[in-house]
Amino acid sequence: MTTASPDAPVDILGPDHRSLLRLATAGSVDDGKSTLIGRLLYDSKQTFIDQMEAIERTSRTRGEDAVNLAYLTDGLRSEREQGITIDVAYRYFATPRRKFILADTPGHVQYTRNMVTGASTADAALLLVDARKGVVEQTRRHAYLSNLLGIRHFVLCVNKMDLVDWDRATFDRIAEELTRFASRMGVTDVRAIPISAKLGDWVVEPSSRMSWYAGPPLLELLETLEASEPPQHHAARLPVQYVIRPLRDEYHDYRGYAGTIASGVLRVGDRVAVMPSATESTVVAIETYEQQLHEATPPMAVTVRLADDLDVRRGSMIVSAEHPPVAASTIDAHVCWMNERAPLRERDRLVIKHAAQTTRALVEEVGARLDVNSLDYDLTASQLSLNDIGRVRLRLMAPLSIDPYAESRETGAFILIDEATSATVGAGMITSGE
What we know:
This protein is of the alpha+beta class and 434 residues long. The protein has helices at 10-13, 33-43, 49-61, 77-82, 112-119, 137-148, 168-185, 218-222, and strands at residues 19-27, 89-94, 98-104, 124-130, 153-159, 189-194, 237-239, 242-244, 256-260, 266-267, 271-275, 279-287, 292-293, 295-296, 301-306, 317-320, 326-337, 344-345, 349-354, 357-370, 377-378, 383-384, 389-402, 413-417, 424-433. The protein has 3 domains: 10-228, P-loop containing nucleotide triphosphate hydrolases (Rossmann fold); 232-320, Translation factors (Elongation Factor Tu (Ef-tu), domain 3); 326-433, Elongation Factor Tu (Ef-tu), domain 3.
């Protein structure tokens, strides 16, 4: 069994009879997320000989008494020096039953924003808990963010069971606590597995050291989880990134609108609307550099031509005329604040980037701040500090074509940018707009 390298995932993502499952690790720092991924890859024979030789050398150089499988994903020098994950690392692998894209996300509070990035496209969360520490605040924060980001499958891996003498009572207590917490968020699919990522127990193969566990190994469970509904099942959305007007005389009537299909299916002959004006037309051609197409699905990059000469520009959105988004001048959203220099306050002015459109936004209201331990909202809050999650209302300088995040990840999400520094300072999930 082989795998594509992280730099060349073409075979994994290409046409195949096997379904694709996107995974993201979650949990606190030092819970063993990178080691678990390394163990998954190693025990399922997804690693190359030169990869293993490299991490064996690194482990010896750093004086470790065994091969540190975390180095399969922690590739940055600073990650290896500190023993923590900083950036999101993606690994692509396959079994005879399924293909996987696995995002190893940081557990440190400082890098919560990176965890949001890795989890934003995942179907399932591998939520790790150190058996010695149990469920901690960062576990709850990552669980809540995973739920907020639309992840409906939680796989709870109670790790480092070897350090608690394989104690079943410890596992049962942690599994019950996390299941109760997830239930309060509305998550009903929580699968708990006792593992030792370092030693390999119940990761790919069963383990006699925890024979009291009656479920499948982790990899077998992942092969059976249902993936999220693919974006082509949603209403058609094409954010326009570029208007193509060739300068050559023979193409003086040509006007094409280039972008990546965000959701739905666009077909020649479809009746569409151009947002935010909602003017309607018909698709007369769908093109790529190489060929004419009859239809396009996510995430294809295409050029669309319309029957009518409309006002279409970068930031416009070509959508299904039957199921258009809302052209909103005000939006309500859940926001995860990521700026360590300053909190988010009412009356702040920021730049909002949504799909291919960027505009300015005024923070009209910080309506509530979440307590990740109790799941209660502080309705008296007037600001969000670093890593806080809260309900925010934004007034926009120009309307955005939005869908609720619960209906579409693609057109229900946005980022907030500091106008002075161009730094990304927040990520938002839209609940409504008008």
